[in-house]
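Collaboration report, partner site 2.

Our partner group contributed sequences for two proteins of shared interest, and the home lab folded both. The records are reproduced in the order in which they were received, starting with the first partner submission.
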Amino acid sequence: MMSPKLSMSQKKIRLAVSGDTGSFSEEAGLLYAQRNGLNFKIIFAIDMEGVLKALDKRKADIGIFPVVNSRGGLVRPAFEAMGKHLFKFTDELWLEVYQCLMVKPGISKKQIKKIATHSQAIAQCERYIRKEYPNAQLIEWEDTAKAARDLAKGILAKDTAVIAPARSAQIYGLKLLAKGIQDNHPNLTTFIVVTK
């Protein structure tokens, strides 16, 4: 761990994450920066393509995004994006992911007709969704935290629930209906750290 004096004088590292504020990718980025004593600024690139484009355009120094989950398997958008860009793999980290179900305040479980979230969150919570919301329409969104933000903004309909990190509910003023709804315990995701 670097001393505060050293980290204050070093250049601020631009750290691109494949998510919005409150995402698991942001959590992975914060964890990586803390472990490595980085003086950093987070760039919310929303998806894996965005992270690798930010590196290509030199708008980011480091990128972090998920590649595999113990339940959901390969994160396909990550591999699609990796096939289009040149980058250097530098590190990896594992993050235990706790998926949560949230709605706009005033919405009850009975009112939920749709569930919006990233395809990985759907895969990780498949049994829970089938049991609790067998008739809900599933909507794939580019990021779990972005789904929470878009529900709060009214971009998603009021009868929509989102699956996202608990922190997203707090940030965007949503009501947590259920915590730890992932099918596997532990629910581990591998994130990779890349540079240009």
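Second partner submission, folded after the first:
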Amino acid sequence: MLKERTISALVLASIIGLLIYFLSDDLLIYLVGLIASVSLWEYSKVRFSNLTSIFILILFLLLLSLTHLTFLSYSFIALSVVLFLASSLFILSFPLNKTLLKNPFVWASSGLIIHLGFFASIFEIISQDGLSDLSLDLVHERFLILYIILISILMDSIAYFAGKSLGKRPFINNVSPNKTMEGFLAAIIATPVLLFLSSQAMFEFSAMKIIFLIFAVAIFSVIGDAFASMMKRVIEIKDFSNLIPGHGGLYDRLDSHIAAFPCFILILNLF
């Protein structure tokens, strides 16, 4: 299983990396829209019928078309951040809130908001709106997307291997039994340290602001992963689909990134 997961992850990462770097702005925006749509479809399909899932997807695409309006784009981003912040309370109190989370309106609206925030965040990077503190040439613009993805990957990878070798105490085991406190602490310390030097060349911020930015995004990546795990436990499934061998569905792979991107863009603009 580990070998299959590793091979799938490397192939997927290579393909995504090449597409992010070489596609034109318009094509990359369409690709992100397609990825977000497939992820939302998986999220909806495990809870609703095909007809209801199609309706949710159509509504999503209609709202997606409005992200060129800066106010609405940042509204989607802010709503997504607020939802993930609120979900951290639900994660800690799960399964006491299981009935509420299973409510059709709560399930559908949550899926719409987090995927809209994810798409809007990447749209803002590609369109370069509100990113005056960054170098805006093509290399840095695309590198920023990969940089945010890297934060989530480092958090997940370090937590996994540190947890395997050092982990003893459970961490949010009510939604994710395999996570350990030792793995989380190792990841949340190591990730900002590993990325700090490269970050100084990208941002015109103080060292404290850079560390805070990485730290906050790392925390949100954990919340995004825990949120997906919690929702799977609500309806008692292992994965949202079997699209990717060894990894489950697209949303199973995107869960941490879907939370990390809105957090990054919102804090960046606050700075």
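Feedback sent to the partner group on the second submission included the following. The radius of gyration is 18 Å. Residues 2-31+86-104+132-270 form one domain.
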